[in-house]
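Justification of computing resources. Each target in the renewal requires a structure prediction run like the one illustrated here; the chain below, 472 residues long, is used simply to show the kind of job we budget for.
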Amino acid sequence: MKMFKVAALLCLVGYSIAGPCPFHQLVVSGVLTERDSMIAHELASHPEYIPALDKRLIPEKCDTETLEKRDAAAEPQGGLGGVLGGILGNPLGGGLLGGVLLPLTGALAAVDVPTPQPFGLAPINGDLPGHEFIAPGPTDVRGMCPTLNTLANHGFLSRDGITTFAEAANAVQTAYGFAYDISTVLSALGVIAGGDLATGYYSIGGADARVPNTLGPALGLDKHGTFEIDGSISREDNYFGNQANFHLSRFEALNATANEIGGGFGRDLFVQEKYTTYQTSRASNPEFNAGLKYFVVAHAERAFVFRGLPNGTNPDVPNYQNISPFFLDEEFPEDWFRRATPYTLANTVTDVLDLYTASPVELGANEGLNNFIPTGMDIPMEPQALACFLLGNIFDTVPGQVQPALLANIDLFEGFVDGVMAPLVLNAFGGCPGLTNYTVPSASAGTNVDGSLSAPGSPVDGVYPGTSPDRV
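Resulting structure tokens:
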């Protein structure tokens, strides 16, 4: 409470001066509503949020007359009454204030939330102290995502590959220049799909004993079903074996197509490559799945390549020099800079729609070869409607083996989504009219825990040490 004692002195000094009234003065004035006071109490141990709050709470006049006349029963205009929550009222805390997540409470109080990181053009490479490239050791976890592996190899994530909700979201902001909202949503999905919700920990590879299993199996990001999908850029389909490992032949084919059409690793390449990869998987993989998860991840992961990996000094040139090190060696290129402007959640949804509509494919799943069953799902083709549709169906993106634990702890999962993901979506798209609940998966969901694999470290020039290309 020291912060509030200091604030009280400041408030007394400033009482006679009419002007904007920042948060710390309203706290000690005694005129906050009961709801505001409760939130202020929660923030007492999080002084890092106070500057953001002070910037938002400016309509009030800090003179004695105004403060005395203020109706304590009314929500303060532009102040804490501006807390943006989810669609269920944030039963376990969270919500946005000044664009920043508030702490989670109750059974989720141990889960630290991400904080906004500085953005702007900046060098991100192996010359930064503490972020030199170090190849993973025998107990370090790596998985199917080259960009997360790169973050771990450079120490932006824990080098052992065991990360947390807050750490991963903050690292993606710092190293790649992605915005607070998309970085937080992606990491939140990681927790839900492959982590331990009670602590916020998850593995960037397969299941690992260092991640608790408080509510059920924490199988890591590599478990087939959410981030790991069929038809990916550089990994093979789950049906054919180890979906965590990089396959040089796939990247070489991608590069060959890039050379044929020109333009490097840009949008036009991935419009064509995604369609070709889809057709190949549909024709050869009897368990190929291209449902809702595929629709989101297949297009988002491709957009992230040409939006996030070009050198920030020349962001419209996704060339081999700057893209290939992330895949072939999982390290930052020399003289590489992050994006100058944050890549947002709204940007991501727009790019997903653009890539899909440029080369649309039928959504569904194989039940054996030559037996493709369409989903019949009507996916909105407008950014706000799509974002709200995905939010409402967020638990459909959870792998089947996680769903029994989800159903047994649905209040915690819904509380996490409502306090963390929903406010960011609602803020980015101006609300979700008509959305009042989250679709809950069927109780008959599967419980298979096979196939939660990690990669054997990071490749060197596209090949894992001690192996031959594509034979790992």
